[in-house]
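Recap quiz, item 2
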Amino acid sequence: MANLTSIAGQKSNRWVTWILYAVILVITFLILYPFWYCVSYSLSSSKAVMTQNVTFIPIGFTWENYIKVFKQNNLGNSFVISVFRTLGGIVGTLLVTGLAAYAISKPTLPGRRWISIFMIIPMYISGGLIPTYVWMFQLHLVNNFWVFVLPNCFWAFNMLLMRTYFEGIPASLEESARLDGASELRILFQIIIPLSMPIIAVIAMYSGVWQWNAWYDAMLYITSAKLKPLQAILQEMIKASSTSMTQMAQSGGKAAQSQGSPEAVRMATLVFTTLPIICIYPFFQKYFVQGVMIGAVKA
Amino acid sequence: MKEKRTDSQKRELKREIAKHRGLYLFLVPAFVALIIFAYIPMAGVVMSFMDYDLIKGPFHSPWVGFEHFQEFLTDPEFWHALGNTIGINGLSIIIGFPLPIALAIAIFSMKDGIFKRVTQTISYLPHFVSWVVVGGLVYKILDMDTGAVNSMIRFFGGQPIAFMREPSWFWFVIITVCIWKELGWNTIIYLAALSGIDAEQYEAALVDGANGWHRLIYITIPSILPIVGLMLIMTVGNLINSNGSASFDAVYNLRNALTATSSDTLDYFIFSQGVQHNELSYAAAAGFVQGLVSLCLVMSANAISRKTQGYGAF
């Protein structure tokens, strides 16, 4: 396929191919460089970065910034919060969204169409930030761990992905089990779930990555330091340094090193926060792409 | 006769429902979640017609009619925020929309192999990094004194640029960052369309002596045109809502007080009025109008797509 479209092989156009590969190389470099820079910076000594600029390799290589990251008071605690919200989100989504998707995938279910519409409407219409914000206060979900999990248990888009998958499982498999008198729950656990591991993996990773990266709910609903996930702690560090930069610029002072935590420590925290995603990325990348494909076919 | 039949139909339906009661039980958690976290907040927009007070609650806050709507429609800050939202999203469509198509065609024409796979893997990576992390990266890399970009500018003898402090640079920064983050990810859908092209077309073209350029113009591009059209319509539908480049995610993590004049978007306006200044009903009213208008945009985008492409998202 690819060799039919590529221009290689035609001698006169070989230079086009070289330009193509060069452009792609440059783009790939530009996408990767910020990460590279950040890692190099986090491995540079705080003293060295005052006088020299980091470009590619760390200057004054040291692990001290990472040691400081682990010594920060709340970091261990917020790591635990992040892990728990990720696990809670995955379990909640699989249970609530998965069960609903399974029920909806049955063509014989009376009222199936209306139930689907009821579930999809919130993809297009929402109450907006403020009514939700006020409602969370009334539900006593402010400064409550469950604010991370409960509102994110049902995702219409994931429901559609799972429904499409379940619809593809041959009905004959469960017919025979039903004739043997198996209950709905038993059919689900003994026949459907073992056959659905690929889509379960996709949805688990979708909601896991989303939960790990989420910051918005913590910023709005959590003020207690004990409940802040990693992203919230990192955001506070970044906001503190940008605020000090702002104040310095407004007071007309010559911009010096920004106050707050040293930049190299901030970069190390940033790397530490992203590391879990990077580590599992090679494994889940393939599944994510599949998810987009199924979604595209639906649309 | 007729009545009897509907009677038996009713009985049939009852039997069907009874037969599926296990499945209905499976739907209960989703229904509860949807009602609590989606439908009640939807009903909550009535608070924009009240002077909502957190302590008095929804049943004791006074009604004020359209007062808040009149108020924000005459608020220059609101129009300013609307202008920034449309500006950022509009420019980012014009600049950012064609890029993933070009990259997808480029990746598609590469020989299968390790280089192609690595390119794709790297290009999807920024999509999975949180906006908080991206914000931190951007602040560092564009820092006026020690950032990599300004080091480069200085190296080539230029004057350092205050990217994160000058309002005039904010649109450039946010659009570039959004393109950087989603460029690779957005190629996926075009790559899917490209791999669906019938190989025989290319073979026939080769036999007819068409060169690479001809194949691109006459086969590749026309084949993906329908999906390009669909994506364009959908993107334009997001012009004022929170799914475009001016998303709250991007704006909140990249803005600061110095760049406020060019970074206060609609979402930020609503957040700042409602959450920071506690003007809950006022912000809810603005959010209600934003929601209505963006729903109209999405619906018309969908209708256009149905008319011209023969299918829509719903």
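Residues 1-9, 254-260 of chain A have pLDDT under 50 and may be disordered.
Residues 263-298 of chain A form the longest helix (36 residues).
End of item.
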